[in-house]
Write a structure and sequence with these properties.
The chain is α+β, with helices and mostly antiparallel strands. Helices cover 34% and strands 18% of the residues. The strands form 5 sheets. Strands 12-9-4-5-6-13 form a 6-stranded mixed beta sheet, with helices on both faces. A hairpin with a 2-residue loop joins strand 14 and strand 15 (367-371).
């Protein structure tokens, strides 16, 4: 295995703070006093709030993250120049065991850590357009804090597009058949995380779809529920046929976490608690996984709208409360840039799903979506970058 890898390093940024005006020239009558500057902590906290409104609630899989940039918040993930990357042999992962360990539960206070496999560093990819940034946001299907090597779930790309002045939410179907390094045949996209951690997941997405992802954020469904509860729930329109299946997921969460989450009692527009909202977003039996990914995007939109409607003090309080619920490989400078982008683009959002209708066929055994790659890549790149 190649050892010539470069590790991404956290960066620190100095933000000037101001002192109160006490007899300075700016206090002389006729000269306007200088405007006090916000403290470093308040500036960064405010910016991070806008990151949250674009990403929290997406992770209905299972990773719990810490994003307190004033402590050990940064997940160090190995990077390597694409020209220096040495792929493993085809077929070497064919006998990989996908079963995990669930000996420790979140109800005991634990959380699932991000799976970083140094055998699969993230291949460095140049950003295609400096005004379009793609960030991977996902969860996993873990059912306990020791269940680390799990399948990726709720895979979504948050695209910050300054050209079209919008945030684009792109769902990647976890059962999409893709080429995964080390596998001799087509396999499901969601499995790549279990085989080689976040590095192999990102490389698989970039290699198959021609994307330029380098950064990620990961949450678990328990953490997502806590975030929603911090804003006193979100309003969703629940269909009558969804009530039964949402309550089945609530049953599962009550058993898993030892909680007593109340059932949904009726359909219609209503305020859901965090656990109820996550149970609704995880429904997969009443319709299809296509509709399930749509629910995830609806959840994101509802969360964005709720947080954006709150006053500044409430937003800051929420951020302080949820510190430690998710992890990322973005350092402080990355967070500031992404947060700034969020403030500029949050008013406009659009959605897309991969594979697109009409651009895939279904393989029954094992069940997998076989993509028309030429058409799908062209359509995806058109959506993200406006390329024909």
């Amino acid at each position: 295995m190649n050892n010539n890898r470069r590790l991404s390093e956290p960066n620190n940024i100095r933000i000037a703070s101001s002192n109160r005006n006490t007899g300075s020239a700016s206090a002389v009558p006729g000269i306007y006093p200088s405007k006090p500057k916000r403290s470093k902590k308040k500036i960064i906290i405010r910016i991070m709030v806008y990151i949250l409104i674009g990403i929290l609630g997406i992770g209905v899989g299972s990773i719990k993250y810490g994003l307190d940039i004033f402590g050990p918040t940064f997940v160090q993930t190995p990077f390597v120049n694409a020209d220096d990357y040495k792929p493993i042999d085809i077929g070497s992962l064919d006998n990989y065991d996908l079963d995990g360990n669930t000996s420790s539960s979140w109800m005991d206070g634990g959380h699932t850590s991000v799976f970083v496999d140094e055998n699969f560093p993230i291949k460095e990819v140049k950003q295609k357009d400096k005004d379009v940034e793609n960030i991977l946001v996902f969860g996993i299907d873990s059912r306990g804090s020791d269940d680390i090597k799990c399948r990726a779930d709720a895979i979504m790309i948050v695209c910050l597009d300054h050209n079209s002045k919008e945030i684009k939410l792109i769902s990647l179907m976890r059962d999409t058949g893709v080429t995964i390094e080390g596998r001799s045949s087509l396999d499901k996209l969601g499995h790549s995380y279990s085989y080689g951690g976040v590095g192999l997941l990102i490389n698989t997405i970039n290699d198959n779809f021609g994307l330029d992802i380098q950064r990620f954020i990961m949450l678990d469904f328990n953490s997502s529920a806590q975030v929603i509860d911090k804003i006193d729930g979100i309003e969703l329109d629940i269909k009558i046929e969804e009530v039964k299946y949402a309550n089945q997921n609530i049953d599962e969460q009550n058993v898993l976490l030892g909680t007593s989450i109340p059932y949904l009692t009726h359909a219609g527009y209503q305020t859901l608690t965090g656990s109820q909202a996550v149970a609704w977003a995880r429904i997969r039996h009443s319709d299809s996984d296509f509709v399930r990914t749509s629910r995830q995007r609806i959840l994101v939109s509802a969360l964005m709208q709720k947080v954006a409607s709150l006053d500044r003090a409430k937003q800051l309080a929420i951020l302080e409360d949820v510190a430690g619920l998710f992890e990322t490989n973005m350092n402080s400078i990355d967070l500031i840039r992404v947060g700034t982008s969020g403030t500029e683009l949050i008013k406009n959002m659009s959605e897309y799903r991969v594979p697109q209708d009409g651009l895939y066929t279904v393989q029954q055994n094992p069940w997998m979506m076989v993509v028309d790659w030429e058409s799908q890549i062209a359509a995806l790149h058109e959506y993200i970058w406006g390329e024909s």
